[in-house]
Amino acid sequence: MTQPDNSHPDAGSDTVGSVHELAVLSRIFPLLPAATAATVGPGDDAAVMAAPDGRFVVTTDMMVHGPDFRFAWSTGHDLGWKAAASNLADVAAMGARPTGLVVAIAATRDTPVTLLEDIARGLRDACAELAPGCGVVGGDLSVSDTFTLAITAFGDLEGRAPVLRSGARPGDTLALCGDAGVSATGLKLLFSDAVTHDGRPDHVRAQRLRQDHPRAVGAQLAPRPPIASGVAAALAGATAMLDVSDGLALDARRIASASGVAIALNRASLGDDPDTALRGGEDHALLATFPPGRALPEGFRVIGSVTDGDGVTVDGEPVAGVLGWDPYEGWNGGTG
Ligand SMILES: [Mg+2]
Predict the structure, then answer these.
(1) Where, by residue number, does Mg(2+) 2 bind (predicted)?
(2) What is the pLDDT of residue 9?
(3) 58, 305, 267, 56: which is closest to 170 by C-alpha?
């Protein structure tokens, strides 16, 4: 892992350190998406959200410059989009509809205000495309030596039971909605081709790489998880579900362990590059189990089945060890 480089490729004149916080916020607020479930939105000491279900789903995810993203590779729009998408995917994986985001940013003093505006546009566009009606209902802005963005997301179960990791039963069908391994392919490309000769992330090489490999690099920098499919899976009777953040092998094992079952994956159903699909995370596809014979919601495809026992097998062969993405260790499941 290389040293984080906090410099911004698009450094402009106004920075977080040179402009008053209120002035920064007045530029960001108009860009943020509104939440239809907010009865009191941003501007007061706290927001008020409608929760007609009587319960709400809540999750949080933090992105730290260095281990989680690099400004040499990600634009502000990418960062806002990805932070929103990964949180929305966690809400969707419970079978809930995302309703609101709270966004906390600790920016370095040299952060251009235009970069914060780009982050706000990324949040707005991700909500509009992936979870219409979900919006930013509040947040906080501070300064730090390391740029950090933390999002807390809320969701509405709309009267349904939450879909847990523990509900898979022997005989269930295992199905996936979304990509597997595409984001990891993009990350491998960035680590191999978008760095300087001494291993630092390189902005110009990353831009060129993205033009040459738009799908893989785009999936890594701004993933498009199938958020609405979470509710669809719940309505179709999904017995267990999660979003694949650490690779199919590791995340299938999480369902197997929580449910006390074994999961058998079919290698032929894992696409052109099954090893990367098994080990590569961050696509935030939805992995779910359904009762036998149940019609699957649109977008889900069968990739395996649930059986008695424990652990994960691929074509009958056990998957050993921890194979996936660990932000503290870097890529530990790949070949390079
Ligand atoms: Mg998750």
Answers:
(1) 61, 90
(2) 59
(3) 305
- Please state whether the predicted TM-score (pTM) of the whole model is above 0.90: yes
The pairing of strands 311-314 and 262-265 is parallel
Go through the chain and tell me how many residues it has: 336
Q: Sign of the CA dihedral 11, 17, 19, 24?
A: positive
| Interval between CA 258 and ligand 1 midpoint (Å) | 14
DSSP letter (8 states) at residue 201: B
Same domain, 105 and 228: no
Domain hosting 206: range is: 173-331
pLDDT at 329 over 60: no
Torsion angles phi and psi, residue 303, rounded to 5 = -125, 0
For residue 65, being part of any structural domain is answered with yes
Using the mean position of ligand 1's atoms as its centre, give its distance from the Cα of residue 71 in Å. Answer: 24
Whether residues 146 and 194 fall in one domain: no
174 CA to centre of ligand 1 in angstroms: 17
Q: Give the SS3 label for residue 271.
A: coil
